[in-house]
Write a structure and sequence with these properties.
466 residues; alpha+beta; eight-stranded antiparallel sheet; 23 strands; 26% strand
Length: 466
């Protein structure tokens, strides 16, 4: 059943007209004690299909059904629904493509579907985008003007608002920082339902970028664009030993010779192989010998791809995996440079390819100095490595529980050497862990929550303030 100012549809039941704050339910008839639903341009959905979609995500680990789903027809709908939720203490989360892995964008109250907020306008070196637009849509729109986002996530099917709420990392982060470092300004709906435009230097801007949806919901963003190259020359350099891979990555990232640097650990006969994946974006022929100097691999593969095809290289794979509804207990850790080799070697000594399933293991460094947004917590070293074990495998509940416990143990080990988590994965954490995560900034975190979301209605699935 759906209710909206412009559309009024009934699907097998009477339309929602009010909210019962005592019973915490939407009702089809106003009675004493109920309150009218906000006037909306879009739709408020309570039908089983809409609730079921919002109750799950890519991880297939947490299933939390909301009481309603808002498909907004405008930014005004988000404002009115959040004000209503704040007034009646209803939990609210914003969900884009549902690519979270551990219930981060789920809520037992209202889930706001950001996908209708998908407008994109390219204006020179700036893109103005709605929170529900995907990075793939932005890439296409920008390339039509010869431009591109400076940093692309490996999978372009993610919503822009979602990645800006956590950070957004990719192989070009060595040059440009995280995606949150490429934001010029934001339009945000705070937990009190205020629509605020904010920019660098504003306290809300600092709180929201990488702020896990705790202080405001991003509804629109102004993003940097840079000129796009025509071609990506891709280098896959394979090494027999972990330390050979990380040594080569350190050289390549420190001198910035490639446009893109990542790395993968892949199953091999008798153990693991280590692949440095790099790309040079170009319009004229790059010098292979110069780019590969000092990086002697055991094997090398060099190919050219159109720039758009390179950015889109894993979309089909992810889109094929998702309908399988496999559990995806991911773990994503930021590791200090000096501790990375020993930490990863220890993890791999206890990990088998079967425990990873169809997902990759990513390992690559970037410059900490490029990361300027204070809510993204990183180790205090010049170079930081990202380790992502992106498990995707058929597993029963007992196996999933064991893998989640393993994720938690890895997280604790990482913290002991000065690491932090990149909070897009599946690590069971408590508010005490978040206090440790934010460290000296935690007082500011509490103050921002009290200022922008005093009733703590926003994004409960992150469990920052339980």
């Amino acid at each position: 059943m759906r209710v909206g100012r412009r559309r009024f549809l009934v699907t097998g039941a009477a339309a929602v007209v009010a909210f019962d704050p005592l019973g915490l339910r939407w009702v089809a008839q106003a009675t004493p004690g109920t309150v009218a639903v906000p006037d909306l341009d879009g739709e408020l959905l309570t039908d089983p299909a809409a609730l079921a979609e919002a109750a799950e995500d890519y991880g297939q680990l947490v299933h939390r059904s909301p009481r309603a789903v808002l498909r907004p027809g405008s930014t005004r709908d988000v404002v009115r629904m959040v004000r209503f939720a704040n007034r009646h203490r209803i939990a609210v989360a914003m969900r884009g493509q549902g690519h979270s892995t551990f219930g981060q964008a789920q809520s037992a109250g209202v889930v706001i579907d950001s996908r209708p907020l998908s407008e994109i306008a390219v204006r020179g070196t700036t893109a103005v985008v709605g929170a529900g637009a995907t990075w793939g849509s932005l890439v296409d729109a920008a390339l039509a003007h010869g431009m591109t986002p400076p940093v692309a996530t490996d999978y372009l099917g993610l919503s822009i608002g979602g990645t800006l709420s956590v950070g957004g990392i990719g192989g070009a982060s060595q040059h440009h920082g995280l995606q949150v470092d490429t934001v010029r300004s934001l339009e945000v709906v705070t937990g009190t339902g205020d629509l605020v435009r904010c920019a660098p230097g504003d306290r809300l801007f600092d709180a929201v970028l990488g702020g896990l949806g705790q202080y405001g919901l991003i509804v629109r963003a102004w993003l940097d664009l840079v000129p796009a190259a025509a071609t990506a020359r891709v280098y896959k350099l394979t090494y027999d030993h972990l330390t050979d891979l990380t040594a080569a990555q350190r050289i390549a990232v420190r001198d910035g010779r490639f446009s893109y640097v990542e790395g993968q650990i892949v199953p091999a006969e008798g153990g693991w192989a280590y692949v440095l994946e790099a790309a040079s974006y170009h319009d004229t022929e790059p010098d292979d010998a110069k780019l590969l100097a000092g990086l002697p691999p055991a094997d090398a593969e060099i190919t050219d791809l159109p720039y758009r095809a390179w950015l889109n290289r894993i979309t089909d794979v992810v889109d094929q995996i998702r309908p399988l509804r496999l559990p995806n207990p991911w773990v994503n850790l930021f590791l200090p440079d000096a501790g990375t080799d020993g930490f990863v070697a220890d993890v791999l000594s206890r990990l088998t390819p079967a425990e990873v399933g169809g997902g990759p293991i990513l390992l690559y460094p970037f410059h900490r100095a490029r990361m300027t947004r204070p809510m993204v917590r990183l180790p205090d070293t010049d170079l930081v490595f990202l380790l992502s074990i992106l498990r995707a495998l058929p597993a029963d509940d007992a196996t999933v529980d064991a893998l989640l416990a393993d994720n938690r143990a890895m997280y604790d080990d990482a913290v002991r050497i000065g690491g932090t988590q990149y909070p897009i994965g599946s690590i069971p954490v408590t508010p005490a862990d978040w206090q440790r995560h934010y460290g000296a900034r935690y007082r500011r975190v509490l103050a921002d929550k009290a200022t922008y979301d005093p009733r703590r209605v926003l994004t409960p699935g992150q469990h920052v303030f339980d």
